[in-house]
Amino acid sequence: MAVPSRKILLIEDDRDISHLVKLHLEDEGFLVVIEADGNAGLARAREGDFDLIVLDLMLPGIDGLEICRRLRGGTDYVPILMLTAKSSEIDRIVGLELGADDYLVKPFSVRELVARVKAIFRRIGVAGAQKVEPDSLRISLGNLVIESDKRKVTLSEKKVTLTAKEYDLLHHFAAHPGRVYTRAQLLDQVWGYGYEGYEHTVNSHINRLRGKIEADPANPRYILTVWGVGYRFAEPQDLK
Questions:
Q1: Does residue 196 share a domain with residue 154?
Q2: Is 61 within a domain?
Q3: pLDDT for 207-220, tens place per residue?
Q4: pLDDT tens for residues 47-73?
Q5: pTM (2 d.p.)
Q6: Per-residue confidence at 108, pLDDT binned at 50, 70, 90?
Q7: Same domain, 156 and 104
Q8: pLDDT at 131
């Protein structure tokens, strides 16, 4: 039985770029739908029928950052690869912290874009393969419960609302309690690329996570700082 093609929504108002990207992605076997307007792109994205969204930052209608914000405020998760002609540090940080899974600055190599698309789908495949055992679908540590199949987190039986990347980071920590990670390792393993120079993106995500799951974020119980190295998640025996 043939494996269904991955379906990609490309929201890009530059006709030359969109058709070049579409051509190369379709050569790799992907199905590509193009929208050139922010409002139309958001509406199409909300149909929930895509495996990846390639999203330009500057668009007519609403911009890519606002599209990303609104999509990440919903319940359905779809990976987002953001494109932009802007190269300033703040734009990259904002895009990543809103929940974009990857980031490319124009002008970019179409071969690099295709490689990053494939890398995102590989990570999705690995994550799916790691969730085949029923026991692995639920992580319970102290009063914190993570239900992987639902991407749901509760603390003392109350739902915790997380962005997609906050959830990914928390799940990665909780699946490996006690293991120490540097910021660079977390960027590589959770975001998927090194993003050299953006280790403070990890710091900001951890600060927000602590604000949501820690009774006293200044004295965390779950996500612990290992001074001079990075972070680790508390071990089960420490949470009893």
A1: yes
A2: yes
A3: 989 999 999 999 99
A4: 878 999 999 988 999 999 899 988 887
A5: 0.64
A6: confident
A7: no
A8: 43
Q: Is 13 within the bounds of a domain?
A: yes
Per DSSP, the residues of 159-218 read E----HHHHHHHHHHHTSTT-EE-HHHHIIIIISS--TT-HHHHHHHHHHHHHHH-SSTT
What DSSP string runs through 55-124? EESS-SSS-HHHHHHHHHTSS----EEEEES---HHHHHHHHHTT-SEEEESS--HHHHHHHHHHHHHHH
Q: CA–CA separation, 64 vs 82, rounded Å? A: 8
Domain boundary (95, 129, 163) is at 129
Q: The domain spanning residue 210 has which CATH number? A: 1.10.10.10
Give the amino acid at 157.
Answer: E
Q: What is the pLDDT of residues 159-214, one digit of tens each?
A: 998 877 788 899 999 989 999 999 888 887 887 655 555 667 788 889 989 999 99
Q: Same structural domain for residues 143 and 82?
A: no
> Do 202 and 171 share a domain, yes or no?
yes
Task: Give every CB contact of residue 63 below 8 A, 6+ residues apart in sequence.
Answer: 38, 57
Encoded tokens for 175: 């699946």
1, part of any domain: no
pLDDT at 2: 40
Are 123 and 213 found together in one domain? Answer: no
